[in-house]
Amino acid sequence: MANSEPAEIREWVSFGRGGESEWPVHEGYEVRGGALCPVGAVTRSYDPLAYPQIVTQIARLNERDEAALVAFAQTWGLLGYPSVPPDNGDPLPWVGAHARGIHMVLKLYSYLQRPNLEGLGQFLRSHKGSHWEYPTEESLNLTIGTPRNWGFKSLPWAEEAPADLAYDAIAAIMNPNLRGVHYQVSRGTRGRDLRPVLSFVSLGSAAYWHLFNIVTGRRLLGRCDECGRFFVKMDRRQKFCPPPPPPPLGPKTTTGSQCGARYRKRAERENERKNKGG
Predict the structure, then answer these.
(1) What is the rounded CA–CA span in Å between residue 56 and residue 245?
(2) Where are the domains of the chain?
(3) What is the maximum alpha-carbon separation in the chain?
(4) Distance CA 205, CA 226 (A)
(5) Are strands 230-233 and 181-187 parallel, antiparallel or unpaired?
(6) Would you say the C-alpha torsion 67, 68, 73, 75 has a positive or negative sign?
(7) Tens-level pLDDT at each residue, the chain (278 residues)
(8) What is the DSSP letter of 226?
(9) Residues 276, 259, 4: CA angle, nearest 5 degrees
(10) For residues 247 and 259, is the Cβ–Cβ distance under 8 A?
(11) Theoretical Cys-Cys bridge with 29: which of 73, 138, 266, 269, CB 3.0 to 4.6 Å?
(12) CA–CA separation, 278 vs 31, rounded Å?
């Protein structure tokens, strides 16, 4: 399987698995008091750095779709709002702010990647005058959705340079949220040397690390031929959203991409209709 990450990046990830680099998933989740909250005890944990599709899954969330929020959390856990106690959960507006910000970055990057500067200019014009919301220097990691900590950065409008504005917008959204990802050193497998470890403070910060890998070309961004949504390509030939993650995160059995299956089924029905008509 193709992997576009440099060897040193893959090494950091491999040595970062386990211990403080695991993220918990509870028995269940529910929306309560305007927040996505855990229910019951922690039943499993996993390394989110090993699953690049997390970032595109977050980009699909909407704070008004409670069923989708619960389904996401049952697979991946909470994003990790810095609250005390942590069982207070993730405020829905905070989750929605991150989903919109990540989707905006993916959208801008897709225009830059093609490149489609005319489409990029039209897209940016549709957002002219909008605020780009990001944490201020005084705020905690991943507090984009708490109104008291919102900061606003004015990005100068330049009709003749849409790419420059897009790059600035991507940086303005991403950089404050990358502060929750950092390097440490850990004793190596033989116990007599040190290895770099990539650590994160929350699932949300791990997602921004995956987003970093996309916009810096370490991962390939794709758009599904069936549903039209963004996904992370694990192979350059990949055309559809990936299947659910394997156990213990996903179902016990998986039959491949659900979007790919729907696409092929529809093509089969279309061929049958053509053959009958012929």
Answers:
(1) 13
(2) 7-277
(3) 73
(4) 29
(5) unpaired
(6) positive
(7) 344 444 333 333 333 333 347 899 999 999 999 999 999 999 999 999 989 999 999 999 999 999 999 999 999 999 998 765 666 899 998 898 899 889 989 999 999 988 888 888 888 877 665 554 433 332 222 233 333 333 345 555 566 678 888 888 888 888 888 888 888 887 776 667 788 888 888 899 999 999 999 999 888 898 888 888 888 988 888 888 888 877 777 666 666 778 878 878 888 888 777 777 65
(8) T
(9) 130
(10) no
(11) 73
(12) 53
Dist CA 213 CA 232 (whole Å):
10
The identity of residue 249, as a single letter, is L
First to last CA, the chain: 41
- pTM for this entry: 0.78
Query: Do residues 134 and 178 lie in contact, with contact meaning Cβ atoms separated by under 8 Å?
Result: no
Question: If you search the block for the tokens 């992370």, which residue do you land on?
Answer: 232
Whole-angstrom distance, CA of residue 253 vs CA of residue 106: 30
Two structure tokens written together for 60: 């699909």
